[in-house]
Structure prediction request, 334 residues.
Amino acid sequence: MKTKRILSGMRPTGPLHIGHLVGALNNWVKLQDEFECFYMVADWHAVMSEYKDTSLLTRWSIENVADWIAAGLDPKRSTIFIQSQVPEHAELCLAFACVTPVPWLERCPTYKEQMKELESKDVSNYAFLGYPVLQAADIALYKADTVPVGEDQVAHLELTREIVRRFNSFFGEIFPEPMHRLTATARLLGLDRRKMSKSYGNFIALGETPEDIRKKVSTMFTDQERLRRSDPGHPDVCNVFAYYQAFAPDIAPARRTDCTGAKVGCTDCKRELGDRLAEFLRPLREKRTALLADPKKLREILDAGAEKARKVARATMEEVHAAVFKKRVASSGG
Ligand code: TRP
Prediction:
């Protein structure tokens, strides 16, 4: 039996792309061997910033889960569920809110950034300030000790530990302090070399068709110093070469010498990458298409996941109730 437990989640705000695959999903899949895993669609977290239009939320939730499973998450081994189907998240969030000082949240670097960045969205709402409190509840509800996340989430995990510590100091040692676990992969930049992001439209989605993959790859920026076909290229600063390393590692060394020796031009190099990437994603794409063609089965997977998650969540909330409202736990003799 695996004794260490993981919880992680993603907000369902759009299609998943190759950045998610390389930066998170492949790692989630591997962790299944070592940990008992809970993987959650953080749909309430999405509502916190997307509340003005939630019409696509359910669609993204389902499609993201199809991508997770297609990438190798196994519903038999991992508990895959949607946050809003487990109402205990909201309840523990309220309990944690009672012990979280508002200045902790106002100081949170991600909050300050988002307030500036998301100018187009109104995130002056109360829930958005409390985003890390719900995230702490997500983790603590399952007493997860490890949380695989990207760099951008480290501040939230620090807050989680502080909230848990404060809760425990008032109500007893109910929750472990979870550690974040950074994913050790090079970050894949977008097609235009900016951060890969839905809002920039510079990504390749996991469900993209081969034609669109080829088309998008053909627009990628290459080594900007290589002006003529006869100039030697610089693969180490070329985004296209980084993609070769991620998706066609077997031919990357040969590509390097072709490029530095000016034996291949950027157009041909990209054409081949488009073919390889389309091929690389084929099994994932086929599996995802099959999953999405059978929504009833996906529903069953998610209902079963929510049921499994709720069992754990209910047990935790019983402890919380007992501690907060000074009730005796039933098993201790009524
Ligand atoms: N905040 C995370 C993100 O934006 C998503 C998330 C919600 C999460 N709850 C979580 C991640 C719990 C890890 C653990 O990526």
In short: The longest helix spans residues 295-324.
